[in-house]
Design a protein that fits this description.
heterodimer; A: alpha/beta; Amidase signature (AS) enzymes; eleven-stranded mixed beta sheet; 11 strands; 11% strand; globular; B: alpha+beta; nine-stranded mixed beta sheet; three-stranded antiparallel beta sheet; 14 strands; elongated
């Protein structure tokens, strides 16, 4: 056959597999070959499990041959962010402190992937413990943007965005605490969805900030994300914060791509100043496309968003400082003996290990969070931040009275150069200005490509936000926009990315 | 090295002459749930180390807690039994600190939103008076693992070459019950402390929420104590003596700390706010960890759990399951059974209440029930180092045996001494009272001719006594009955003998 299996979408692969036109082994092998060819340059993966993926593929092929009824995505390979536990596969969270740790259990989401028959290709790179917007904080070196290898692929999920953008996998799992699925999608010309908080189980997701973390799909098309969303979503009794309700009809919404009569709210605070001109221009065009497709545009104001970043950088470090306390060398992971101490105490080993095992950004946030939770400061910092969080949720609730979905550019800029913002944490944090409010309020958000910015020819992202448990609306809008833009572009946006094999080193 | 030598103490009386003690008692109770607080691991005591663990209670990366509903119900029942208000909405909180036996380096507990607040427990003291201990709060939390320090002489961390950690206990549900300051107890402070813990233990046992075994650590008491100048009405600096694990130790620890504080204060010193270790063997406390202002647990609401919000109906349904409070039950039973205060206390102390209750329910008189369960069998049980109910169930001796034995006496087949022999036979495993009586030939002689002959012979042999009785000194009959019984070799019915003697001497 002539189809390039690595370029096929998950939906196309599912059709080919279902029709017997290819096998899961053939697809998996093609993707592994692609990884062998390009991942030296892109560095999407921290760990590739060729044997495991091929074994899973063979198993699916065997079961398909035996006439077993299989999940639609059975046999379609996937990459998983290294922050999710995988039985028998290393899970490092991009940190030295977990180097060599092999979890004895699967995250619920991974269990569901395995049950649906998706071979797991490997674990993708990320900023250490998901703290960052560039993957430059990975202890194992950054991932690179397939559009320009000198640029960041976004973060923290830059491994998952670049792995689908570089055609090493049609699907990947990301996690989004303040934009770690959506911002990487935006800067790599891919699609990523942060579901409603509680929509996908967090069991086995190594927590950064428990009240903000949410796992979700990464892909090259809106329909592929919807298909994956449906596999991983739904109630899990192992996660108390998981919502006990059916997954919203995301696949149906993605297939219908219908926005007729839908009220699209433009968030005043998330456009204009601070947004790169080319990003803003693509956003404005995208809104016009939706209007052309029958949507109505309204402007909404969310005044409390001004404080979102400040609140986020109190709540996240506070929870992280506690969540990361377990990494103490006592039970698993790195263990470092302190220098020059003859018979070190457990406490001394803990301190030496945490000093050696955590990177600067992680330490920065642990210190911030420890301070914010300290007695005497709690009310002023953590307490105030929780109040802001409530105000932001109120802003959203009010905005959703006049709009069915809210839209904004996903990130203020296109991909910046590696190293550009490494020494300026505030500049790095500002990347998530448009994505953070959704995490604070627990609502779902999706990023779809809006085109290439004129000034640098790099992808920009269009963000859609919906009320909690109305994830299907994201897919309606995303798919409608994708259909129109793809027609305008004459094909998927990634078709315009440079050929990696030509530039790989 | 910590010091293990005793510090100077003032005598208890001297201490009280100058100071008023104030106490606060914190009791940790391990709930008897089948599974842990936040995971499905079993909670059995004494299993091989680290065999009752999973990703959740080991705090593995990514694992999440799920609240044990039975533990929440137990907590609510405890709160209700302590006359507390139950919070309609409360949350868990993380208590952050590093320790190797704490898998997550935070303990999931409750902080400013406990499940139960503002209750009381009435405690009966030895003189029969009641002291009301006010309850500040009862909250839910998880236990930590257990560190075992190897190589040192005393099992303590000092001098140990290495430590082992057993995480089987990590995540076992605990309820912490905290009193408000216990004031005005003066010289009765040690007694009040002990009586409170004892009363609480009985209550928790009646609730069937815990096996409350202090020696196994399923109930542990921390004693906070401070002294203030007598009559000043202020609160002094406190110490917290941890893990005082028997009722007697609670009393001793309070007494010791009163004396120790008093000696320091009387010498012009000041008390260091610190935790103290209780040494059961020597009866002293030694300095533990200094509690400074720097200690900060950075509590914040546990984001991995949703709030606990029991409905009014659910709370009332649980209230309906509460057993009669032990103190009220005791008063009621004492009245029903007609026991004196001393008798009732002996029965309580011997743990016989349930056994006597069952025996009475089976048809025995309260008097007989108390008599047979507290005599010979108590002596034997004591010799075996167990309580009577345990011993009885080991022997297979049941309330029905007591009912049967009493029946034999009432029916006139056995007199008291024969009944004792029959009971001994039962305890020796010779069968039921009837079987023992049959086998040992225990039977009152019903032959009136033989009795009449014996009575006549005894009257003839004791003319002086017989005259006295004729003159109305009826109480002298006892001497004659004794002789008749000897004549009859114990096989006579004493009551019948008495009746016959009095009739012969014109006194019936």
């Amino acid at each position: 056959m002539t189809t390039d299996l690595t370029r096929a979408t998950a939906a196309e692969l599912a059709d080919l597999l279902g029709a017997g036109a290819t096998s899961s082994r053939e697809v998996t092998q093609a993707l592994l070959d692609r990884t062998a060819a390009v991942d030296g340059a892109v560095h999407s993966y921290l760990h590739v499990d060729a044997d495991g993926a091929l074994a899973a593929a063979d198993d699916i092929d065997r079961r398909r041959a035996a006439g077993e009824s299989l999940h639609a995505l059975a046999g379609v390979p996937i990459a998983v962010k290294d922050v999710l536990t995988t039985r028998g596969l290393p899970t490092t969270c991009g940190s030295r402190i977990l180097e060599g740790w092999v979890p004895p259990y699967d995250a619920t989401l991974v269990t569901r992937l395995r049950a649906a028959g998706l071979p797991i290709l490997g674990k993708t790179n990320m900023d250490e413990f998901a703290m960052g917007s560039s993957t430059e904080h990975s202890a194992y070196g950054p991932s690179r943007n397939p559009w320009d290898l000198e640029r960041i692929p976004g973060g923290s999920g830059g491994g998952s965005s670049s792995v689908v953008a570089s055609f090493q996998a049609p699907l990947a799992i990301g996690t989004d605490t303040g934009g770690s699925i959506r911002q990487p999608a935006a800067v790599t010309g891919t699609v990523g969805c942060k579901p409603t908080y509680g929509g996908v189980s967090r069991y086995g997701l190594v927590a950064l900030a428990s009240s903000l973390d949410q796992a979700g799909p990464c892909s090259r098309t809106v329909l592929d994300s919807a298909l994956l969303h449906e596999v991983i979503g739904g109630h899990d009794p192992m996660d108390s914060t998981s919502i006990d309700a059916p997954v919203p009809p995301v696949v149906e919404a993605a297939r219908r791509a219908d926005v007729a009569g839908m009220r699209i709210g433009i968030v005043k605070e998330l456009t204009g100043e601070g947004f790169q001109a080319g990003v803003q221009a693509r956003f404005d065009e995208a809104v016009q496309h939706l209007v052309d497709a029958g949507a109505e545009v309204v402007e909404v104001s969310c005044p409390s968003f001004t404080y979102a970043l400040a609140a986020y950088y109190l709540i996240l470090p506070s929870e992280a400082s506690s969540n990361l306390a377990k990494f103490d060398a006592m039970r698993y992971g790195l263990r470092v003996a302190p220098d020059g101490v003859d018979a070190p105490s457990a406490e001394q080993v803990m301190a030496a290990t945490r000093d050696a095992g955590f990177g600067d950004e992680v330490k920065r946030r642990i210190i911030l969070g420890t301070y914010a939770l300290s007695s005497g400061y709690y009310d002023a910092y953590y307490g105030s931040a929780q109040k802001v969080r409530r105000l932001i949720a109120d802003d959203f609730a009010k905005a959703f009275e006049s709009a069915d979905v809210l839209v904004s550019p996903t990130a203020p800029t296109t991909a910046f150069r590696l190293g550009d913002k490494l020494d300026d944490p505030m500049a790095m944090y500002l990347n998530d200005i448009a994505t953070i409010p959704a995490n604070l309020a627990g609502i779902p958000g999706l990023s779809v490509p809006s085109g290439l910015a004129d000034e640098d020819g790099l992808p920009a992202g269009f963000q859609v936000l919906a009320p909690a448990m109305a994830d299907d609306r994201l897919y309606s809008v995303g798919a409608a926009l994708e259909a129109r833009l793809t027609a305008v572009w004459g094909g998927p946006i990634l078709g315009r990315a440079p050929e990696l094999t030509e530039v790989s080193r | 090295m910590t010091t293990t030598t005793a510090e100077p103490t003032l005598s208890f009386d001297d201490a009280l002459a100058a100071y008023d003690p104030a106490m606060g008692l914190e009791v940790h109770v391990e709930l008897g749930t089948n599974t842990k607080m936040f995971c499905g691991c079993p909670t059995e005591f004494g299993a091989e180390p680290n065999t009752q663990v999973c990703p959740v209670c080991l705090g593995l990366p990514g694992a999440l807690p799920v609240v044990n509903e039975v533990a929440v119900e137990s907590a609510i029942r405890i709160g209700l039994a302590l006359n507390c208000s139950i919070a309609p909405w409360c949350r868990f909180a993380r208590k952050n600190y590093f320790y190797p036996d704490m898998p997550k380096n935070f303990q999931t507990s409750q902080y400013d939103e406990p499940i139960a607040v503002d209750g009381y427990l009435d405690v009966e003291l030895e003189d029969g008076s009641t002291y009301r201990v006010e309850i500040e709060r009862a909250h839910m939390e998880e236990d930590t693992g257990k560190s075992l320090h190897v190589g040192g002489s005393t099992g303590r961390i000092h001098g140990a070459t290495h430590s082992l950690v057993d995480y089987n206990r990590a995540g076992i549900p605990l309820i912490e019950i905290v009193t408000k300051p216990i004031l005005g107890t003066r010289e009765r402070a040690p007694e009040v402390a002990k009586a409170y813990v004892a009363t609480l233990r009985d209550l928790l046992k009646a609730l069937e929420v815990s096996d409350v075994k202090m020696e196994q650590g399923s109930m542990r008491c921390d004693v906070n104590l401070s002294l203030s100048p007598a009559g000043a009405g202020t609160l002094g600096t406190r110490t917290e003596t941890k893990n005082v694990n028997s009722l007697r130790s609670v009393e001793r620890a309070v007494r010791y700390e009163v004396g120790r504080h008093a000696a320091i204060l009387a010498g012009g010193g000041s008390i260091t706010q610190e935790t103290r270790h209780w040494h059961e063997d020597t009866g002293i406390t030694t300095s533990g960890r200094v509690k400074s202002d720097a200690e900060d647990y950075r509590y914040f609401p546990e984001p991995d759990l949703v709030p606990v919000a029991p409905s009014e109906e659910a709370i009332e349904a649980l209230r309906a399951t509460l057993p009669e409070p032990p103190a009220e039950r005791r008063k009621r039973l004492q009245a029903e059974w007609g026991y004196g205060d001393l008798e009732m206390r002996d029965v309580m102390n011997a743990g016989l209440v349930d056994l006597i209750g069952a025996t009475v329910a089976a048809g025995a008189s309260p008097t007989a029930a108390r008599k047979w369960w507290s005599g010979e069998i108590a002596r034997r049980a004591n010799g075996e180092g167990v309580d009577v109910p345990t011993y009885a169930s080991r022997l297979g001796v049941t309330p029905a045996h007591v009912v049967e034995l009493e029946g034999l006496v009432t029916a006139g087949r056995l007199n008291d001494s024969m009944a004792r022999q029959a009971w001994e036979g039962v305890l020796d495993g010779e069968g039921t009272p009837t079987e023992v009586a049959d086998a040992r030939g225990l039977e009152l002689v019903q032959d009136t001719g033989a009795l009449e002959a014996a009575v006549d012979a005894v009257i003839a042999g004791n003319p002086d006594v017989a005259d006295k009785i004729r003159d109305g000194k009826v109480q002298a009959v006892g001497a004659l009955i004794g002789q008749v019984m000897r004549e009859m070799k114990g096989q006579a019915d004493a009551a019948a003998a008495r009746q016959l003697i009095l009739a012969r001497l014109g006194q019936s």
